[in-house]
Amino acid sequence: MSERPVALVTGASRGVGAAIARALAPAHDLLLGGRDTEALAAVASGLPGARPWPVELTAVTEADVAGIDRLDVLVHSAGVVTLGRVEETPAEVWRRTMEVNVIAVAELTRLLLPALRAAGGHVVLVNSGSGQRTSPGWGSYSASKYALRAFADVLRQEEPGLRVTTVYPGRVDTDMQRGVRDQEGGPYQPEKYLEADSVARAAMAALTASPDAHVTEITVRPSAGPSS
User: Which residue in 141, 146, 168, 193 is the catalytic one?
Assistant: First the structure.
């Protein structure tokens, strides 16, 4: 890594995470986090100063973050969603959803706090419209996103030397959204969804705000179509 600012992006192999990595690349050295080593390498190959950081986020340890002494930006973009009404959702779905969407975020942030403090860093949490309101069938996912919202609010108060931003996008044209629509049994209509690059631009608006401005929350909705 060079003397440029350093950013770590989880979920960087595709979708919103990859889009945010591309937006950060001109000014940052990048660590691209995720499980798919080949996909991470493919993203990194097109971004100067980027390298894969393959890791199982639900099992991250101090050894995984060893050598990260300064971190200017941490973007949490990885997540999972399994739809189902309460009567259809077993405990293992709730546990897995919370483990990936909340607990892994909290633990990685905790491990990286010394590096973030050293840089006066910025934490960006890619949440969801489901972290602001919920609907039938979205119980486990929405609960995890409400918890992620609370985590961001607490982190912001406990770490006044850091900036903490939550981004709440509506439906985004990603592989994850295709999986959601398969679960919902509806057609996939990308023209009604946000582009991943649009969410990245919203995140960059917070990351590039003037020093006197702390952008704490951004809500982004598609200009047409469903907004959850």
Answer: 141
